[in-house]
Amino acid sequence: MSARLDSAQPYALGLFRIVVGLLFACHGAASLFGVLGGAVGTDGGTVSAGTWPGWYAAVIQLVGGTLVMLGLGTRAAAFIASGSMAYAYFKVHQPEALWPMENGGEASAMFCWAFLLLVFTGSGAFGLDRLFSRRTARAQEQEPAAREATVSA
């Protein structure tokens, strides 16, 4: 049973990455464009451009979530996204109460830890990172053969 589950791990991780990235990007889109109910606390509106930290957080959410969802620069995007959610939790939510259930910081805490997991695991299956790494590996494998053919000619 463990062997079967282990063989499916990259696919489960890839699906996890896609869902987490999509949900995160939706938060950013809501805050920046007023879609999906708009920014929290604005009654369907948007966050004012350039305001700290809301607007910058929304940009990180939209761009970082999209990159993670696509599996492009996953580790770096997830690292930045995790840090932004840690900041959100400790600066916005935690001063209100100790526990996430009490201070409304469940989403920030969960996103923070989900992205931190992706920093260490990478994109899994279905990511553009994997596609590009395969192309690079193939090119590096073909490069020595091309050199040998040039030298012998």
How would you describe the overall organization of this protein?
With 153 residues, the protein is an all-alpha fold. The chain contains six helices and no strands. The chain has helices spanning 2-33, 54-70, 74-93, 100-103, 106-121, 128-152. The mean pLDDT is 89.
Strand content: under 5%
Instruction: Compute the number of helices.
Output: 6
* Gyration radius from CA atoms, angstroms: 20 Å
The percent of residues in helical segments reads over 70%
Mean pLDDT: 89
Approximate shape: elongated
Question: Based on helices, strands and strand pairing, what is the structural class?
Answer: mainly alpha
* pLDDT < 50 runs, ≥5 residues: none
> Order of helices and strands, N to C?
HHHHHH
Layout of SSEs?
Layout lengths: L1 H32 L20 H17 L3 H20 L6 H4 L2 H16 L6 H25 L1
Helix pairs in contact: 1-2, 1-5, 2-3, 3-5
